[in-house]
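notes to self, project folder thing:

trying the whole complex as one job this time. last attempt i did each chain seperately and stitching them together was a nightmare. three parts in total, labels are on each line so i dont mix them up again. if this works i'll redo the older ones the same way
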Amino acid sequence: MESKMKKIYFGLVVLALGLVLSSCEKDDTDFSDIIAEYQVEPAEVELDFSALSEIPDVPVTDENDSAYNDYVENSPWNKVINIDLNGENAVITGTVPGVMVQTDGAHVTVVNMSGPVKFVVSGQTSNGSLKIYGDKRFQILLNGAEITNPNGAAINNQGSKSLYVVVADGTVNRLQDGANYVMVDEEDQKSALFSEGQIIFSGHGELAVNAVGRAGIRSDDYIRIRPGVKIYVNSTALDGIRANDGIIIDGGVINVETTGDGAKGLRSEGPMTVNGGRVTAISYGDTRITTEDEIIDTTACAALACDTLLTVTNGTLRLRATGDGGKGLNAKQNVDFKGGALVAVAEGTKKIKKPKGVKIDGNFSISGGYFYSYSRRSDPMEVEGTTSVATGYKTYEKKAKVLLIEY
Amino acid sequence: MARCKRKRLILLVLLFTALMSQGLQADDSGLILSAEASRKIRKGLNAGFEVEFRSRNDFRTAERVSLGASVSYKLLPWLKASGGYNLLIENNREEITYNDDLSYNNWRPSYWGLRHRFNVSLTASYKVRRVEFSLRERWQYTYRPEKMIDNFDFDEAEWEDHKVRGKGKNVLRSRLQAEWDIPRCKFDPFASVEFHHSKHLDKTRFIVGVDHTIKKTHDFKLYYRYQLTGSHSSDPNIHMLGLGYTYKF
Amino acid sequence: MKKLFIAIVVLMTGFTANAAIIGDVNNDGEVNISDINAVIDIILRDNSDPSGDVNRDGEVNISDINLIIDILLGGGPSTLTPKDISLDFSPLEEPGETIPDDEDALDYGDYVENTVWATTVRINFDGETATVTGNPSSVIVNVDGAHVTCTSAAKRVRYIVSGTTSNGSLKFYSDKKFQLQLNGVDITNPNGAAVNNQCGKSFYVVINEGTENTLRDGATYSMVENEDQKGALFSEGQILVSGKGTLNIYSQGKHCMASDDYVFVRPGCNLYLNSTSGHGIKAKDYVYIKGGVINMEIAADGAKGINCDSLVNITGGRTTIITSGTSKWETDSLGELVSTGCAGVKADYNMTMTGGTLNIKCTGDDAKGINVAQPFVFGGGELNVVCTGNQVNVAPKGVKCDTDCTIRGGSFYSCAPNGKALDVEGTLTIAEGYTSLSNDDERLLEVVY
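result (full assembly):
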């Protein structure tokens, strides 16, 4: 009897131990896949200064084409004035009737009444500037120029016609403004390189713009960037590159970083078109909060902000925002993505405004190219209007943090 | 003896399976396995040490390991006072919170934590023929010390450190128990009902089991415990299979 | 007594001998073809026989033959005495102006009062230097000795200039209208224009009341590539003259006042233009004389008082033009050699006169008082044209119209003793209602309403 009992008890003990040992399972919900999706690492977006092999663009030859005057090759440049910013004193060589040049140390003022004139600018100065008046098309050929203006814009065009900035092949040029701008009369002075009229960048050299007071490059008209040129803008207070009437990128290697709160890497108030080139824009700033008359206004950063239609046909856009509320691409109207590549990464926090890889207030249509958007803390892309994705794509992945459409 | 043993055992097993199969859909079930050593120090004064293991999630997940020490003293022939301390090492269940739009907000996965439990009890017993009724009133204080645990914030898409604050809880447990002493059978059934009260009625436990003592030194218990959760909690009701062993020396 | 008698007889014979008939070269008591032959003989023999100098101009030439022909045809040299016309600097009482205040009116921008002149730049010439004050950074002024060049991108700039220099100039580059206020300035530029405006917008020339200003150019102009410089006061844009002061312009190199757009002269101003090389006023677009006292002395051959590529409109003021040159030979656009004579006013389009006074006197040969290519409408005011010259290549004409001519008001007087008073190739309309009309052959026409 006892041994039988013992056997039973022994059996029970074995059963019990078995039950104990088998209770090794975890009763947690398996979130591993979701967490993996949430914790996916975004694509890397860093400034890229490497060379880009581009097909040179062909200037328009039809005089009646509205873009005819965007090509510096289409104007005669036999009238030349050389401006050598020689430390503390600028040296001017060349005279053109109808063009008056005045120098105050290394601060050069030009009034151009003569029509297309080429200004070849070279030399270094830590307290100089170039200001041009006159509603005539003119060219600034940057030929190894380093201009720092502690009191305002390094180059300021007050004329309303085209400013052709040609960055001479093989040269490195630098423009820097000051922390406090000394304003003159009622003139605009919105950036280190400022122009009332449209700015067209061409050439194969390098241009670096450091803005500590206001924006980097601004035009009250439009900005066009042509293949071959290398532009780097670093702006600590305001936007990197901004234009009122639109930005057209035909090519070039463009790197922009902004650290100010509420600053945008590239901002176009008019329509923006990207046809080539490689743009890398990183905005590090957080949301800017301003209170005026008890009204609180918040503006978030964006690597690329476009207030009207954005069309991408080719080229690469790599956009990243790391600050609170920062957006990779913030489009206030429609976006038409026909080709090229877009990588938008929003890593910031959500404290005041919501960061998004891509935010489009209008309609989004995509028919080609590579489109990648990542938001660490929300849906990768937010479209308020309609989304139309053309058939024929190779990949369409919509995950918790990443949206990838590839054709 | 064999007859009664078999009868009781079969009854118990049948009862157990019946109840289990009914409740398995919504209720949880688990195992309580305990081993205790109890020593008589003086007349009326006993001290003991206990180890207990519990599982949940239909026996698949470990829930708790408890180590305890207790002392009891017979104040009067019918009144016993006791006190004890238990170290509870518990596998706290995960917690998932949701946003207003029903998307995930936070996930606090399960973690092992410690709690310290102190209790004092007074037990009054009254024997009528072969049944001993006893009423035990136990005041139990459990303290959970502060602990840093992991929390996954879906909004922020990252793991955070979450501090669980230290908290103490007082519970009054009232247990009414009946034990049968069947002369020819070594297996003595018992049943009890226990109410756990803090601010509200937290739990009610129903126990039905059988006790087997060998030579007054080895005591085996096999029981079924049904825990009914009070209306103020959303925890499921639990069916427990209990196996206990006590070594008296 | 007898000596006295013989003296008288001798004297009387001398008189009668001297009282030979004009045109009777061979002294045969008649004026006929043999007299013409006699003059030809004298010319061929290269013999300056004074008896052949019929018109007493000191030379024996074709004019003498023409005079004999005139006498044969007309029965005597002209005995017409034209009106006397001379420069008149006396002040003129003029009605007040109403300045248009409707911004959309076409002539709103012609009035300097309709712009608020925000920036004032003062330039003072002092012999070999000039001082400039008040220019903002958008107006760069370059001073080289007393030659001042202003390059401006600013709006609403006015320059107030004063002082004297005998080797200086003012040159303006801009693309916005601006004002030049003459405040007692005397500029002579031996190498070109005294004032040269390269801006095609409105050029307001304000002559400050009570000041006398003088501009002189040089005999030779040093030209700048691709830039025009057509007169002592030259402007690419329209010249709008106002103010009550006096402006004298002397030109010996080109014209006095030249504009590549229009010229507008307003009441109150006093202009004296004296040119030995070119026209008084040369304009590519219209010339509108609304008022002012204008006197011009034009000496060069082929030069005009007012030479306008477009139309001429006179509604007030008193303009007196005296030209003394003869015709000039030049190659025209077809490569042919043509002669062009002087004119008081030459207009390539219409000419309209409805008020004011216009006195023109041309003393040189082949000159025309008024030469209009398109219709000439004379509706009011006083017009006096006198052409005293002779015909050498073309007949002198008081008023020559290549198309129609309409006279319907005012007082019209044209006299060309050796030519035609009025030559109209189109239709001549003299409206009814005149109080007097007189013509003498074709050499004088006077119509008064």
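what i see at first glance: The radius of gyration of chain A is 28 Å.
need to look closer tmrw
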